[in-house]
Amino acid sequence: MRWFKFSIIFLLLILGVYTASMYIFVKKNSTIKVERDINYGIDKVYPQFNNLQKFSRWNSFFSESKTFFTEYYQPYEGNGSSMSFSDDSHSGELQISYENPLRTLKYQLYQDKNATPTNITVKFLPVSTEKTKIIWTVFTPEKSVLERYSNLWSDSDFVEIVDKSMTNLKTVLSNKIDKEELLKDIKFDSLMVENLNEQLLLGVNVTTSNKSDALYKNILLNYSKVTNFITNDLNKKEDEFGFPVLITTATNFKDKELSYYLGFPLSKKVTITDNNFNFKEIKASKAFTIYYKGNYANRVRAIQTLLQKAKSESLDYSEMQQVFLETPTADRDVLMKFSLPLR
Predict the structure, then answer these.
(1) Percentage of residues in the chain with pLDDT exceeding 70?
(2) CA-to-CA distance for 296 and 215, rounded, in angstroms?
(3) Under 8 Å between Cβ of 79 and 98
(4) Which residues make Cβ contacts (< 8 Å) with residue 224, sequence separation at least 6?
(5) Tell me, what CATH number does 209's domain have?
């Protein structure tokens, strides 16, 4: 009996110390502010925030869970747009409650059965035409004494979410804007010198016949195969990977049988369990480049132009990179960039 009384007194003492600590040292709600810069203009950055379908794809709060289910409601962007979400651990709703275009957005985040939302304000400050400062401010709802302990680590949790999200956003914008810039000022059949960045490709190794249009049919087949794997199995969106790259020996376009690697650039390696697919790393290099539009079978002239240029300058070269700038189809000319990396 004495031990029981002692236990009760001890528990009451601990509860009293906890309650006093929460009242004295931990605020009933908190305000968290995080500032980050991103090297893209506000006209590129802002649409990724005021459209919740885009926002949820790179924001790590939503994108890191493989079981996340989301549903979007009209209007799909701007003030009044909203979405619901759920996974194995929690559910809730997110809505845009205020918008000052290109300047400020206010979100309300309802989690689980909480009737009081977490209020998030995001401000956008143009530093230059190619740089934007993003200021995140979070106002957490008031919590009871028993729940207030969670405010002890909410700051670091939010900073981690912001940092991961900003990394994802940079990847999305890089892929999207690199594609836009590449297509902006194409000059066909003009040989150029270009610095190629290093790339990480995910794709397939293939050996096939080079007779008639058999090669192109095989490329279309494997293009669909790799695209389906990346978008369906890996759940990647279009702006999360780059233009597909076909890599071949530079001089094998006359061979009866041709081997190639076809892959899409990704920002980082991911776990894959299908042995049909593999990663290939391409080193940064200087290259002779030429743009081509026409029937794929007639691409040989563009390739020969690059090879002749390298030969005339006595330069050694590595494997040819053939980049599809438009989705290849059976009934349409291809739009491509051919690059011959120089060693």
Answers:
(1) 83
(2) 9
(3) yes
(4) none
(5) 3.20.80.10
Q: How many angstroms from the chain centroid is the CA of residue 2?
A: 63
Strand order in the sheet with 82-86: 31-38, 131-139, 118-128, 104-111, 91-100, 82-86, 69-73
**pLDDT tens-digit profile of 164-188?**
899 888 888 877 776 676 666 677 7
User: In which band, very low, low, confident or very high, does the pLDDT at 152 lie, cut at 50, 70 and 90?
Assistant: very low
* pLDDT band at 81; cut points 50, 70, 90: very high
pLDDT tens string 51-74: 998 898 888 888 776 677 888 888
Residue 208: φ, ψ to 5° = -150, 170
* Unique residue bearing structure tokens 């669909």: 224
Whether 226 contacts 274, CB under 8 Å: no
3-state secondary structure of 37: strand
Q: What CA–CA distances, in Å, run from 197 to 31, 244, 265, 286?
A: 41, 15, 11, 9
pLDDT category of residue 280 using cuts at 50, 70 and 90: very high
- Report whether the peptide linkage leading into residue 126 is cis, meaning its omega lies within 30 degrees of zero: no
Cβ count within 10 A of residue 189: 12
Q: Which of 53, 82, 55, 85 lies closest to 69 in space, CA to CA?
A: 85
Contact, 216 vs 153, CB < 8 A? Answer: no
Q: Do both 284 and 313 map to the same domain?
A: yes
Label residue 89 by pLDDT band (50, 70, 90).
Answer: confident
Note down the domain range covering 290: 192-342
Q: Are residues 260 and 116 in the same domain?
A: no
Q: Which of 51, 93, 85 is nearest to 68 (CA)?
A: 85
